[in-house]
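Subject: design request, 730 residues
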């Protein structure tokens, strides 16, 4: 049995050697870390961020149609719409005068290709002016501010009218700006909350501040590295930054917390007789190894997102893996240096007043004893709760975000809703591409077949455009319904399954495909469903590998995999209950879309499995340490979970606080990710860790560690550490 300050026997692990060097050369380690982060940030700023091209987002049949349009020069140009409406205050302020001023102002802008004539709504209450921009959709995002400034100027000149601008470019810019502002607010909330939680845990300002500081450094350094990595895995419009911050705060604080807490425990166990540098070495032999295993588990789980074959998931995986690895590196290097340098100032005056058994540890021990005494009943109870919460996932419906799903608090989005109400043909549309001899003929036949059909807009005749070479034609079929509505889905099925095949029937050598917002969303969701089983398989195998590498136990590896998947299923079930219904709209501040975002299940799966494995490694490491001291498995379960309860519970509370802060981002997809991860972490702490894990290990007994060496088995059976019993390096 190891006494305080005793050197772990056998080969010295790399984590210990690294901690020894950093603890004895603290200023070199700190300076090197700061220099490395500065280089990362500087290199990322110098290299810039490589934004994914539109071709990177093409998926399925919709992607093939986009490629056909691009090759033939038929990609629709970016168009902004200016909507002019009468209001109760109009009082002689004529919409036609405002429309004329809009046309004059817009026509003089370098970015504008053409300005259409005003078009009146059927009821005469609104005018619409189409402004076609030069370039493509990416350049339109850079040029749209100039158009918005002119629209705002005309609005100021005509206060009796409502004059608004909307379009894909203005909506995209506004949504990204709003999300950036919300993310800044999230940072302002999560940072002080995390610090307060850590202050309660450690009772010292320095001990509370260092994990937060290291998490912020990990975020900054990984953002720089992400800029460099984007030249291999293109950035998907900044989608990864929110996840980088979320993961940076979660794992960065957790790893520092586990390491710092263990170093303090070693000092308290010795009564303050060992040095801070020595406590750091002992913490490196236990928590340090667990940090490495946990970081690998998180990184491997996130790597599963590359299997999706989608630029959005690839960019998110890249950013999240980078911030996880940077956090691991900081915990193993600069953290030991800081602990050694700051010394007693980290203790907050608590050494010498050792807490023999903290109140939380005693509470957890009391809660766990009935579980291990009646493990079968406890296991059945936990499984029933798991099934009850996971069952709704069987009815999960996937959909894709679009103009109709963004918050109405964004003016361009609210303007789009009013535009579509006044002009139904300006809503989503099917873009039908045909390539071959005389491609326009079948498209005209298709357009005729849609006349009088309520699934298609009837306020404007469909337009056929033919490429210069005459071999490719494009038909735009507007749909008077939201892109994610059931009616829009039926219209797509009708075009793809009935009308288009009938239109091209009998004409040899034709190729065709359907794109547009509706088709792209449907194909994207189908793509996620197709790749989901492969991601689940990869994550499950990754969990098995990491848990087996950590504990050399097939049984614990399998148990860890099952618990991880149980947490994921519970998260999916709760997402279905919350976001496919309307009962939670008020408390969470969203409007139900009737579906779960197609990206959310995969993101929750990859992030959650990594974090869940994180907790299991730290808890089971404590249990294994107790076993190696000669404690029988059932008692080791109680000792290990109770002994780690304070630090793991604190880590869970911090992680939940980070996830909850993302509920303040006014975007349904971010709220879904926040709810899924929050519920899963709480479920992991309350049910999986406190009921299912201990009851399963109590039922398994010694079999939980199979296969084991005979000397190790002797430790468990006899309850004594024999001379041949070799401790496992943690």
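Subject: RE: design request

Done. Sequence follows.
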């Amino acid at each position: 049995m190891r006494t305080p300050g005793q050197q772990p026997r056998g080969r010295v692990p790399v984590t210990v050697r690294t901690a020894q060097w950093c603890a004895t050369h603290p200023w070199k380690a700190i300076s090197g870390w700061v220099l490395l982060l500065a280089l990362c940030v500087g290199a990322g700023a110098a290299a810039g961020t490589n934004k994914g091209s539109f071709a990177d987002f093409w998926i399925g049949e919709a992607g093939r149609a986009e490629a056909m349009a691009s090759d033939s020069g038929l990609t629709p140009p970016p168009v902004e719409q200016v909507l002019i409406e009468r209001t109760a205050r109009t009082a002689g302020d004529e919409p036609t005068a405002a429309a004329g001023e809009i046309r004059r102002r817009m026509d003089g802008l370098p970015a504008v290709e053409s300005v259409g004539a005003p078009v009146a709504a059927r009821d005469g209450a609104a005018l619409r002016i189409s402004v076609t921009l030069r370039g493509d959709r990416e350049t339109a995002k850079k040029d749209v501010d100039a158009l918005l400034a002119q629209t705002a100027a005309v609005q100021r000149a005509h206060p009796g009218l409502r004059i608004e601008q909307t379009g894909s470019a203005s909506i995209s810019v506004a949504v990204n700006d709003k999300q950036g502002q919300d993310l800044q607010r999230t940072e302002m909330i999560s940072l002080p909350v995390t610090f307060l939680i850590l202050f309660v845990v450690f009772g010292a300002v320095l001990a509370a501040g260092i994990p937060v500081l290291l998490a912020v450094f990990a975020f900054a350094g990984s953002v720089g590295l992400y800029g460099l990595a984007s030249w291999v895995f293109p950035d998907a419009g900044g989608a990864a930054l929110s996840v980088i911050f979320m993961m940076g705060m979660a794992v960065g604080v957790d790893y520092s917390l586990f390491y710092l807490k263990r170093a303090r425990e070693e000092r308290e166990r010795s009564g303050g007789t060992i040095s801070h540098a020595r406590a750091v070495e002992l913490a490196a032999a236990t928590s340090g190894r667990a940090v490495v295993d946990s970081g690998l588990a998180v990184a491997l789980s996130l790597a599963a997102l590359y299997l999706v074959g989608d630029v959005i998931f690839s960019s998110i995986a890249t950013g999240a893996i980078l911030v996880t690895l940077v956090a691991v590196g900081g915990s193993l290097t600069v953290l030991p240096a800081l602990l050694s340098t700051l010394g007693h100032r980290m203790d907050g005056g608590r050494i010498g007043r050792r807490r023999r058994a903290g109140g939380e540890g005693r509470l957890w021990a009391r809660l766990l004893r009935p579980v291990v005494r009646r493990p079968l009943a406890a296991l059945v109870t936990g499984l029933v709760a798991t099934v009850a919460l996971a069952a709704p996932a069987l009815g999960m419906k996937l959909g894709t975000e679009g103009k109709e799903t963004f918050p109405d608090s964004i003016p361009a989005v609210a303007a789009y809703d009013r535009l579509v109400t006044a002009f139904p043909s300006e809503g989503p549309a099917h873009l039908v591409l045909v390539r071959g001899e005389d491609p326009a003929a079948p498209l005209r036949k298709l357009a005729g077949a849609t006349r009088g059909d309520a699934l298609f807009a009837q306020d404007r005749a469909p337009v056929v455009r033919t490429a210069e070479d005459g071999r490719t034609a494009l038909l735009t079929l507007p749909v008077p319904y939201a892109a994610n509505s059931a009616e829009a889905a039926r219209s797509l099925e009708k075009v793809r399954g009935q009308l288009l095949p009938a239109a091209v029937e009998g004409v040899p050598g034709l190729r065709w495909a359907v794109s547009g917002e509706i088709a792209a969303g449907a194909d994207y969701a189908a793509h996620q469903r197709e790749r989901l089983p492969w991601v689940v398989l990869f994550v499950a195998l990754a969990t098995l590998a990491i848990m087996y590498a950590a504990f050399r136990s097939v049984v614990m590896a399998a148990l860890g995999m099952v618990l991880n998947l149980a947490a994921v299923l519970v998260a999916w079930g709760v997402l279905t209950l919350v976001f496919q219904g309307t009962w939670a709209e008020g408390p969470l501040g969203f409007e139900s879309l009737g579906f779960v975002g197609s990206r959310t299940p995969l993101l929750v799966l990859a992030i959650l499995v990594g974090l869940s494995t994180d907790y299991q490694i730290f808890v089971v490491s404590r249990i294994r340490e107790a076993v190696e001291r000669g404690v029988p498995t059932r008692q080791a379960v109680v000792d290990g979970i109770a002994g780690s309860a304070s630090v793991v519970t604190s880590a869970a509370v911090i992680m939940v606080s980070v996830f909850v802060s993302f509920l303040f981002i006014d975007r349904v997809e971010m709220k879904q990710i926040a709810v899924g991860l929050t519920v899963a972490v709480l479920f992991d702490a309350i049910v999986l860790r406190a009921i299912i894990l201990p009851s399963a290990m109590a039922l398994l007994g010694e079999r939980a560690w199979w296969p084991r060496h005979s000397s190790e088995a002797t430790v468990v059976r006899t309850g004594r550490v024999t001379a041949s019993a070799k401790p496992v390096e943690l």
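DSSP finds 23 helices and eleven strands in the chain.
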